[in-house]
Design goal:
- By secondary structure, the protein is α+β, with helices and mostly antiparallel strands.
- Helices cover 36% and strands 28% of the residues.
- The protein has 13 helices and 31 strands.
- The protein binds adenosine-5'-triphosphate and magnesium ion (MG).
């Protein structure tokens, strides 16, 4: 039996996509605005309301400082690692150099996982609406080249959003999975994924072993700081420089103008994928010294864009070359190259890809959706493992090691090792009676440990005093199926597990994550209360209108006392519109009670009239007044919706319809 549904989320730099496995195949779920792509953007409005997706993107020009986009570029990064990225965004990035990056909005500070969690929660909610059931479990994808801290941060984001993150999957692997299911061919494939913020390349082997389809990643490589955002930036600087030369005004200094320019440049970039020249027109972009408006009108050609792009294109070669080398493959051995990510629509990028792999890349998959579809397949495998005839063998993208004498990096787990995996290493003391050892763990490919990403310090203490070199402490490094590292240590002499201090590589402790989750839930419940209040007020307003209509239309059929008491109840309800929800609800119930009494008496009168009539004329008009009858004792959930049929001498049809 399949378990509950596990959704697959592609949490992208620019756009996020979610899919679910239904009816034997994965399908993308559209958001409440009907769009299959949700911009990964969070907007903070002045009244404390938060908006996510398209609405947030729409407010970016008006409110650039409070609109957070491309947060994925900050995931799992310390402040001192993001100097370049920081310059590209209008919102304020804060935090001490060694701490995880934070974004400051209206005096509040948010970590990158908290912002991502807002996007994830939005996605979770619209999935729940679509599926009609609660969603708790998800598979989330990350660039294959994400390091431990970035993966951990993504997992943290899921937890803060109230999701049970069942698996972190590499984006190219997810894409290959989706490809493999539709093309049941064996062979070696390369996935070339260039999105909004990251570049990934993976080489995989797809094979059939009996009933089982096996996906084995041979090697992966990439650049987590290269994507469509950078290409936009090239055009922004080009146009802004040109404008500055003409008008001596730097548009980059005006946040609102810059945001408009950014949007126009992204649009122009996309247009240049299908035309050879396009124009950028931004009226009233600035003001001259004479206070006259200055408009921006310029033309960009594909040739110019490609020239600007050239240095970045070069950065695509090395990861691909290294990936082929690590997989021990020649380009000729790759049967198919699959394009993933919106930026692979750029013709020049397709040319580079062709030059590297010496064959035309395949464009048969939708580059925006294929990752989410693969994640949904992975979700299905986890939900229903017995029926899944797929085996996945992924790899860790970066080497893992420790700092040893001379500051060198001693590698324990090589990059491209199949995960999950475990390695053990014995450590000892450097001086007599030493009772603790500090071990520094790094991830990366540089020879000097400090040039790599430090994941944490592991301190082994409580070692019984002994001569140097005698204690044997075994440290084990475990990489789980998510590519996330766990560390344990054991004193071999005493077989005691040593106390070790593991600082989470994302830099956020479990307690902090819990606090962020509580905060997010509180905000969600504040949002819910706001929603409920709006609905209650709306319902009350509608009832008041309906009641007024009813009084007007049936003025001749009710007594003046009934009319007065209804009018009083309506006025009472209207006076509560700006009061507490419970006050509105009480007045709502009172009015419903009055209306239901009037309805009953009207019905009784109609029935009596009907009984005394011998020959009933044809009914002139049957008017339905929708009155909700409430028994004062019952709760809202038990409201009976009674329709009173107003009959004038009608025959036989006067039965009140009292089902719900
Ligand atoms: N026709 C096009 N031509 C050029 N670029 C395009 C085109 N369509 C989309 N893009 C660019 O693709 C990028 C978005 O791609 P995608 O949605 O795959 O990225 P993402 O998944 O959000 O990012 P990542 O995978 O890096 O985290 C944006 O920079 C967008 O401008
Ligand atoms: Mg992507």
């Amino acid at each position: 039996m399949a378990g509950k549904k596990i959704i697959g989320i592609d949490l992208g730099t620019t756009n996020s996509v979610v899919a679910v496995y239904e009816g034997g195949e994965p399908a993308v779920i559209a958001n409440t605005q009907g769009s299959r792509l949700t911009p990964s953007v969070v907007g903070f409005q002045n009244d404390g309301t938060r908006v996510v997706g398209r609405l947030a993107k729409n407010q970016a020009v008006q409110n650039p400082k409070n609109t957070v986009f491309s947060i994925k570029r900050f995931m799992g990064r310390r402040h001192n690692e993001v100097a370049e990225q920081e310059k590209m965004v209008p919102y304020e990035v804060v935090g001490s150099p060694d701490d995880p990056v934070k974004v400051k909005i209206n005096e509040n500070e948010y970590t990158a996982p908290e912002i991502s969690a807002m996007v994830l929660r939005f996605i979770k909610e619209y999935c729940e609406e679509y599926l009609g059931e609660a969603v708790s479990d998800a598979v989330i994808t990350v660039p294959a080249y994400f390091n431990d801290a970035q993966r951990q941060a993504t997992k943290d984001a899921g937890v803060i959003a109230g999701l049970n993150v069942r698996r972190i999957v590499n984006e190219p692997t997810a894409a290959a999975l989706s490809y493999g299911l539709t093309n049941k061919k064996d062979g070696i494939i390369a996935v070339f994924d260039l999105g909004g913020g990251t570049f990934d390349v993976s080489i995989l082997e797809i094979s059939q072993e009996g009933e089982e389809q096996v996906f084995e990643v041979r090697a992966t490589n990439g650049d987590t700081r290269l994507g469509g955002d950078d290409f936009d930036e090239l055009l922004i600087h080009h146009v802004a420089d040109e404008f500055q030369q003409q008008h001596d005004i730097d548009l980059r200094k005006d946040l609102m103008a810059l945001q408009r320019l950014k949007e126009a440049c992204e649009k122009a970039k996309c247009e240049l994928s299908s035309t050879v020249s396009t124009s950028i027109n931004l009226p009233f972009i600035s003001q001259g010294a004479d206070k006259n408006a200055i408009h921006l009108n310029t033309n960009v050609t594909r040739a110019k864009f490609e020239q600007l792009l050239d240095p970045m294109l070069r950065r695509l070669f090395e990861p691909c070359r290294q990936c082929l080398k690590d997989a021990d493959m020649k380009p000729e051995q790759i049967a198919e190259v699959i394009l993933v990510g919106g930026s692979t629509r750029i013709p020049k990028i397709q040319e580079v890809c062709e030059e590297i792999f010496r064959k035309k890349p395949s464009k048969q998959l939708n580059p925006d959706e294929v990752v989410a579809l693969g994640a949904a397949v992975q979700g299905h495998i986890l939900a229903d493992p017995q029926n899944a005839s797929i085996t996945f063998l992924d790899v860790t993208p970066l080497s893992l090691g420790i700092e040893v004498e001379g500051g060198l990096m001693a590698v324990l787990i090589d990059r491209n090792t199949t995960i999950p995996c475990q390695r053990k290493e014995a450590f000892t003391t450097a001086s007599d009676s030493q009772t603790m050892v500090d071990v520094c763990v790094y991830q990366g490919e540089r020879k000097i440990a400090k040039d790599n990403r430090k994941l944490g310090n592991f301190r082994l203490d409580g070692i019984p005093p002994a001569r140097r070199g005698i204690p044997q402490i075994e440290v084990s490094f475990d990489i789980d199926a998510n590519g996330i590292l766990d560390v344990a240590a054991k004193d071999l002499a005493t077989a005691n597990r040593q106390h070790i201090t593991v600082e989470s590589s994302s830099g956020i402790s479990k307690q902090e994550i819990q606090n962020m989750k509580d905060e997010a839930e509180k905000h969600a419940s504040d949002d819910d209360s706001r929603k409920v209040a709006i609905e209650v007020r709306n319902d009350a307003e509608q009832l008041a209108y309906r009641a007024e209509d009813m009084l007007r239309d049936n003025g001749d059929k009710i007594t003046s006392e009934q009319k007065q008491s209804a009018e009083k109840a309506i006025a009472e309800l209207r006076s509560k519109f700006d009061k507490e929800v419970s006050d509105i609800q009480a007045a709502h119930r009172d009015l419903e009670k009055v209306l239901s009494e009037i309805a009953s008496s009207m019905y009784a009168k109609a029935q009596a009239a009907h009984e005394t009539e011998t020959e009933a004329p044809e009914p002139e008009e049957v008017e339905v007044v929708d009155v909700e009858v409430v028994d004062a004792e019952v709760t809202d959930a038990e409201v009976i919706d009674a329709e009173v049929i107003d009959v004038e001498g009608d025959e036989g049809e006067a039965e009140p319809d009292s089902q719900n």
